[in-house]
Design brief:
Layout lengths: L7 E7 L5 H14 L3 E5 L3 E5 L9 E7 L4 E8 L9 H21 L7 H30 L10 H18 L9 H6 L3 E2 H4 L6 H4 L7 H22 L1 H22 L4 E2 L3 H33 L1
Antiparallel strand pairs: 1-5, 2-3, 3-4, 4-5, 6-7
Helix pairs in contact: 1-2, 4-8, 8-9, 8-10, 9-10
Subcellular location: Membrane
Family: Belongs to the peptidase S54 family.
Protein name: Rhomboid family intramembrane serine protease
Length: 301
């Protein structure tokens, strides 16, 4: 499972004395068998994207011929994922599995220096329309992906929908679009010390879904979407949900501690808490790398 910005996985493989031209042609054939869309073809490298699926993001795969008779296969997640649930490694393994199956057939290819460039040009002409279509699909998908629930990104869109729905109901029942009255925020479940501490503890949770105004809602939704894209697949769905709600409750408790007479509302406390979790995850990864490096030196020195 890859972890990073964006998530990616790379692996070197030997060409096994296979001519580079035969390797590139074999790579093109394998990409088509895997239903990957070719977006770049050259004499020493291939770029493709995995098929867009309804419930997952896709990945960009590059296969580049390196020095000393090796090729580097790299699969990188598209979008803002930093945890790929093993998809990048699976892409690499799928490619290598077919590559070794076809290695004997590819070894029989015998292309002269003139025929190979012409074959590459033909492939480049064939992929131009596919590339344009794929880019349009990817651009559309990337823009709207923060609102589309997927297998690895389910809770975040639902939370966004709940925030939007709550605000729409508030508007429908007369709350002002840009500047609601403070009393209206309280009436709709805002966190207010004198009420919350008088057995209305449910306000610690309800306040997480009460935006102060339209701009507050928009900023909160985009901030939530971004941290959700990064964290939800890493923490898993239900852990992400519980952590989000706990962060919101703790944030509202903190507001009571600092000034119980102030009215607090919105998803900011929960969102800031999730960014704190993200920071911990990033620091932990850095520390893990340092530990691995130290272990390496201890082993060999």
């Amino acid at each position: 499972m890859a972890f990073g910005f964006p998530a990616s996985f790379s692996q070197l493989t030997p060409l096994n004395n296979l001519p580079s031209s035969a390797f590139i042609l074999t790579t093109i054939s394998i990409c088509k068998k895997l239903n990957w869309t070719l977006i770049g073809v050259a004499e020493n490298e291939i770029f493709a994207v995995s098929k867009n699926k309804k419930h997952t993001w896709n990945e960009t795969i590059s296969i580049t011929i390196e020095e000393e008779g090796t090729a580097l296969i790299t699969s990188s997640s598209n979008g803002n994922q930093f945890y790929d649930c093993g998809r990048n490694k699976k892409n690499t393994e799928s490619f290598l599995e077919l590559y070794f199956e076809e290695l004997n057939d590819a070894s029989n290819l015998n292309l002269d220096s003139d025929a190979f460039p012409e074959h590459i040009k033909t492939e480049q002409r064939n992929l131009s329309s596919e590339k344009e279509t794929e880019q349009n699909i990817t651009s559309f998908y990337s823009f709207f992906s923060i609102f589309i629930p997927t297998k690895d990104y389910l809770i975040t869109p639902i939370l966004i929908y709940l925030n939007i729905l709550y605000f729409l109901v508030m508007l429908y029942l007369g709350v002002h679009f840009f500047s609601p009255e403070v009393q209206e925020i309280i009436d709709w479940g805002g966190n207010h010390g004198p009420l919350t501490t008088e057995n209305q503890w449910w306000r610690l949770l309800s306040a997480c879904f009460v935006p102060f105004n339209f701009l507050h809602l928009v900023v909160s939704c985009f901030a939530l979407a971004y941290v959700g894209l990064l964290l939800e697949s890493y923490l898993k769905k239900w852990i992400f949900l519980v952590t989000y709600l706990l962060c919101g409750i703790i944030g509202n408790l903190s507001s009571l501690y600092w000034d119980k007479d102030v009215v607090s509302a919105g998803a900011s406390g929960a969102i800031f808490g999730m960014y704190g979790i993200l920071l911990i995850a990033l620091i932990s990864k850095t520390l893990k790398k340092k530990i691995n490096i130290l272990s390496y030196f201890q082993l060999y020195f």
